[in-house]
Request: fold
Amino acid sequence: MSKPLIALYQPDIPGNTGAILRLGACLGLGIHIIGPPGFDLSDRALKRAGMDYIEMAAMTRDDGWEEFELWRRQEGRRLVLMTTQSATPYIDGSAQTITDQDVVLFGRESAGVPPRVHDAADA
Reply:
């Protein structure tokens, strides 16, 4: 049985990435890091930053958007983008429920996602 996934597009802040990895480890969710990140994402650097639970997180590193998007389409997963530019606020009750086949994507903390990534989102 698959579960929804979380994807981070070129994350900027190691602490935020660590929190998402911890969330994934606790809930059994896979995490995709779409590179390049704005910091050293090596296992050694993550352990040095106190993220020793990293071994419990199901993390996949994608070299870039094209690699991730190819994988997502092959898997038939819907892309749900969390963005401030949405026409539909998530709290208004009309948002669709996240399913086991969805990938919830968060953009860079400093810049969000570029238009081509925004345009690829299904919701």
